[in-house]
Amino acid sequence: MRKIYLYARFQRFWHWMQALIIFGLLFTGMEVHGLFKIMGYEAAFHVHNFFAVALLSFIVLAFFWYITTGDFRQYLTEGNLVEKILMQARYYVIGIFRNEPHPFKKNEISRLNPLQRITYLGLTLVGLPLQIIFGFIYYYFNELVDLGMNPAWLEPVAHIHTLLAYLLIGFVVMHVYMTTTGHTVTSNIKAMITGWEEVED
Ligand code: HEM
User: What's the pLDDT band for 45 if we cut at 50, 70, 90?
Assistant: First the structure.
C-alpha cells in the first residue's frame, strides 16, 4: 500500500461547504414546502434564499479553481465511456459482492472511476444549475410575469423545482452509500477529510 494525496485543501473545503449548504437547502426547502414547521415559513424562506446565493457563489469559485488548476481533467474520460461505465456498474451490482478487485485503480491523476466522473459532471453541469435556474425563476416570478411570462407557468416551475430536490436527495443517499465502497468502509471519507488515501501500490 502507498499513501497518495488526492484532495487539495480548497477541494475539501468546497466539498464540505457544498454538502452543508445542500443539506441546509433541502431542510429549509422542505419547511417552505410545508412538510414540517420548525423555524416558521418566513425564516425558512429567507434562509433558503441565502443558502441558494451561497451555493451559487461556491459553484462559481469551484469552477474557477477546477479550471485554473487543470483539475477538471479528472472528469474527462478517454476511450469508450459507455463500456467503462458498464464495467463500473457491473462491479457495483455483482463484483463488489464477490470480493472482485475494483475495475479502475485510483492514483493521483485518476482518482474518480468513470461512473463517478459522469455522475459528478452531470450534477455540477446540469442538475445543480437547472435547480438554481428554476429557483431563481420561482423567486423572481412576479417580475418575470411583468416582463411578459405566462402566470400559468408558476405551477410547473414549482413542480420541477420540487422534483429536482427529490432527485438531489436520491443523489445524496446513493453518494453516501457509494463513498463506503472504497478499499475500507471509511477510506474515501477519510480522504475527503484529510486529503490522503492509502491505495494499492
Ligand atoms: C450533500 C451534497 C453533496 C454533494 C453535492 C457532493 C458532491 C461531491 C462531488 C462533486 C464529489 C467529487 C469531488 C472531486 O473528486 O472532484 C464528491 C466526492 C466525495 N464526496 Fe460528496 N457530495 C455531497 C455530500 C457528501 C456527504 C454527505 C459525504 C459523506 C458523508 C460525501 C463524501 C464524499 C467523498 C468521500 C467523496 C470522494 C470521492 C468518492 O468517494 O466519490 N459527500 N462529492
Answer: very high
